[in-house]
Amino acid sequence: MIKTVNLQKIFKTEEVETWALNNVNLEIKAGEFVAIMGPSGCGKSTLLNILGLLDNPTGGTYELNGTDVSKFTEAQRTNLRKGVIGFVFQSFNLIDELNVFENIELPLLYMGIPATERKRRVEDAMNRMAIAHRVKHFPQQLSGGQQQRVAIARAVVANPKLILADEPTGNLDSKNGKEVMELLTELNKEGTTIVMVTHSQHDSGYAGRTINLFDGQVVNEIKI
Ligand code: ADP
C-alpha cells in the first residue's frame, strides 16, 4: 500500500536548511497497524503529512497503491485523498461552529455524496463511536474523549482504506486514551491500514510493528 524510496524533505527558510527526512525507505502493507516513534523533531509529523498527501517530498519517491504520487500537484493530492485517507490528530481539529453531525458529515460533503446517504453514513459512524447522544452538541460542549471520538467518526465516515493518526491520545487521560486505541485496533481488525505517530510506548503496544526515526532516518524496526 505504502512504499517510499529515499524519501527526503528539506525545509528551506532564508539561509537555514532543515533536513527533516533523509532517505526514508519504508514499506507498509495493506492491513498493517504501524507505529512511528522517535524523539521530538526527528521528522515524524513531516513523514505522516507526506504519507497523507498533505505535502510533497523534496526528493525520493512515494508510491501509494502502486502510483508514484511524489510529484502530484496539490489539486491531485486533494482529489486522491478523498475517501481513501482519514486523519486523526492530537488536537482533534474539529470545527467549532459545526455540531457533531456536521463535523462528521464534512468528508462526505466534499465527496458530493447525496443527503440521504450522508445521513445514513454519519448516523452509522456516530453509533460506532458511541457519540450519537451528542449529535447536536458543538465541540466546546464535549469532553476531550468525546471530541476525539467525533474526530475518529469523521475519519472513518468515508470508509477510508488508510487512517493516519498523529499522537491520537496526546491530549487525553489514560481512560479516554485507551478507548481511542481500542477503537483504532477494532478498525484495523476490520481491514483498515493504520499508521500512527506516537510518543507513548503504551500506545505503540497496540501496533503490529514500530518504526523508529532519528534525525530524519529510520534507525530500526521492531515487530511487536
Ligand atoms: P516530529 O514530528 O518528529 O517532532 P517534525 O516532522 O515536526 O518532527 O519536524 C522535523 C524537523 O523539521 C524539525 O527540525 C522541524 O523544526 C522541521 N520542520 C518541520 N516543519 C517545518 C516547516 N514547515 N518549516 C521549517 N522547518 C520545519
TrEMBL record:
Q: Which UniProt keywords apply?
A: ATP-binding, Nucleotide-binding, Transport
Annotated ABC transporter domain residues? 5-224
For whether the record's keyword set contains Coiled coil, the answer is no
Q: Which domain of life is it from?
A: Bacteria
Please indicate if the UniProt record lists Disulfide bond as a keyword. Answer: no
Under the heading CDD domains, the entry gives:
ABC_MJ0796_LolCDE_FtsE
The Swiss-Prot or TrEMBL record annotates one GO molecular function as:
ATP binding
Q: Which GO terms describe its cellular component?
A: membrane protein complex; plasma membrane
- Signal peptide residues on this chain, from the entry's feature table: none
Family affiliation: Belongs to the ABC transporter superfamily. Macrolide exporter (TC 3.A.1.122) family.
Question: PANTHER family in the record, alphabetically?
Answer: ABC TRANSPORTER ATP-BINDING PROTEIN YTRE, IMPORT ATP-BINDING PROTEIN
- What is the protein name given in its UniProt record? ABC transporter domain-containing protein
Q: Which organism is it from?
A: Phocaeicola dorei CL02T12C06
User: Taxonomic lineage of this organism?
Assistant: Bacteria, Pseudomonadati, Bacteroidota, Bacteroidia, Bacteroidales
